Predict the structure.
Amino acid sequence: MKKLIFILTAALLIVSCGPSKVATEARKTFKGDWTLNSITYPNSQGTFDVTLFNDASAACFKGSNWSFVSNNNTGTYTTSGADCTAGERYFVWSIDEENTPTGTFDFLLKPTDRKWNSTTGNQGFRIKLVSLTETSMIWEQTVTLEGSPFVIRMNFNKL
């Protein structure tokens, strides 16, 4: 009887430590190719010079193509534009557990030197995954501008 209780307890701990079913489904939905259609700044007026992911201006990201590989949590994006350093960038990503009260996810994106190399500068960017469907997703990143929260919203469509 003690062995049975021990086995059941161990099994429960193993199951409870794994990702939730909701997070697993989100990873599957991420898989594939996406286009970043628009970048907006909700509740803000004016013109802003925003650099995304310590890489390039927001203008270089509009129309960029993103590819997510769910079985190893890697991906690429490609920037382009007249005043942009065009090219493919690599990253690793992960989805944190669901934020139950809001129904959203936190998602972590870490740029890498190459497909399998370490993160660049050991940096990462925490992003709120506001919406995710089979055909679209919305990210929000909150930064500080002049001492106040400033929201950057990125709208994607699946290719």
User: Anything to note?
Assistant: The longest strand covers residues 87-99.
